[in-house]
Amino acid sequence: MALTREQMAQRVAQELSDGFYVNLGIGLPTLVANAIPPGVDVLLQSENGMLGIGPFPTVDEVDADLINAGKQTVTARAGASFFNSADSFAMIRGGHVDLTVLGAFEVDVEGNIASWTVPGKLMKGMGGAMDLVAGAENIIVMMTHTDKAGNAKLLRRCTLPLTGTRCIRHVLTDLAWLEVQDGSFLLKERAPGVSVEEILSKTEGHVIVPEYVPEIRCSEV
């Protein structure tokens, strides 16, 4: 069966390493803050000027003045720092973010990403995504495998306006963990109980399928 949102966050969190500076995009990626493995020390950064974001707050911990770039209330870990957004973007543009996790509408086999607008629909704008895809050392896309109408989001070529080109290395969907490699998606892992055939039927771009594709390791939620 497909991964839950929480299980998706757990899988992405397995890619975190001690000392990483990490930016979590709006939407699904923010859930990674609550899934950081014990013993792994990372600093979460936000475009609105915060370094050291903690897990989402409980009801008793909510501080309406403490928010991330998506205007969600957050907590601050010990030693957190606050600064203006210009300094935050200087950090991003200067290449000081080790890992960025972003949501997307589409990703294609060349590692292009479309994540900021759908023509004809009202959108808030690109935000910091264009800077993040250009400045981060590593970028993981975290999204559903298909849209609400069942259309593939892993494509031969993106159809929507691009956020960045040839910048995506890995994609985690509710069905699979894939690596962008040489004009194809390399299927690395599959959600528990999800067949390779189902993944292929819901992917437009070319998929390389190894002889053995293990299941994603995640907890029951």
TrEMBL record:
Q: Which UniProt keywords apply?
A: Transferase
SMART domains, per database record:
CoA_trans (SM00882)
**Xref: InterPro entries:** 3-oxoacid_CoA-transf_B (IPR012791), CoA_trans_fam_I (IPR004165), NagB/RpiA_transferase-like (IPR037171)
The similarity annotation says: Belongs to the 3-oxoacid CoA-transferase subunit B family.
Q: Name one Pfam family in it.
A: CoA_trans
The protein in question is named 3-oxoacid CoA-transferase subunit B
